[in-house]
């Protein structure tokens, strides 16, 4: 109802007024979210944004067949950033990340990831960023819980007991089967 | 562009296998009701803008695209609008405010990266007939139709903020803009002031077909006048 009263243009009574009564802004939607404080509903452990301005992208030719197109078009994307001086990662995540992905980090401390998956530079850039995000998630996944010595002992003793019981059952069963046979004496 | 998807299994006129064999039943059920969206790439869009056939200062919708005569639509072949494809997304540098009927995520990203905006909107077949050739429609003397809501199988698409549907929640659309920027690695550029007079031009009501014109009006090109309904019942009908 608010929107209809405010603007002089043609507006019917649906759907914005009824469906979204709190919205005073209609398209184009100029609502900006503050990413530094909010965590978006992303399906991963590193629930924060990766600031693109602090990553360095470089574009080169992709490899493989393709003639003039592959020779001329810069579709290969290389992503790199300095891990230690990255402000968008906690100390904890940095430590885990460095331990887990030593092979992808240079001697000077730069993390490098490349992508030439598609024919398009933009999509390869998206692929490189997704690789970075998956790597961070892999580094953050907790190690699977290991059993303690006491727990292992109890598990072993339990297995032995079970085996003992099954053997006793088998022997009892075999006696029953033997008793069914005809015997002279 | 009068391309139409032929029925599945069609063999150019000879009896198809699924008809000669008694096993398959209802192979193309609903073919005559299927909606089709002939594609247009970002490459052609950039070309049209560079050659001066499209003006980026005004919003671009189905009517403007059809009037270029480069992209054509035949509503009689169940073609319901534009499907924006991502071919040429790397070289797309124009700032446009687009209204299309179907768009892929990459195309949306390419448009928003340059500071533009994109909306996916549904038009029923009578509205599409009006938009495909507005001048011919005005010559028929019919009143501008009241745009209908999407059918059941399309409502989900047009209410989804990820597709920038015209029925979606604005805050969720803003979130999706940010997520898409995260995915493709660009910073979300700010949009123009949404409350200004110019920005109001960009907004179409869900019952509206043409920019600046309301349903129920009759546009007479010969008289150079617009005839509007005065009867209460008609006004109520067209404003509902």
TrEMBL record, chain A:
Gene Ontology BP term (one): mitochondrial translational termination
CC annotations in GO: mitochondrial large ribosomal subunit
EC number assigned by the record: 3.1.1.29
Molecular-function annotations in GO: peptidyl-tRNA hydrolase activity; translation release factor activity, codon nonspecific
EC main group: hydrolase
Prokaryotic-type class I peptide chain release factors domain boundaries: 61-77
InterPro entries the record matches: Mito_Release_Factor_mL62, Pep_chain_release_fac_I
Pfam families to which the protein is assigned, alphabetical: RF-1
Similarity comment: family membership: Belongs to the prokaryotic/mitochondrial release factor family. Mitochondrion-specific ribosomal protein mL62 subfamily.
Stated name of the protein: Large ribosomal subunit protein mL62
Species per Swiss-Prot/TrEMBL record: Tigriopus californicus (Marine copepod)
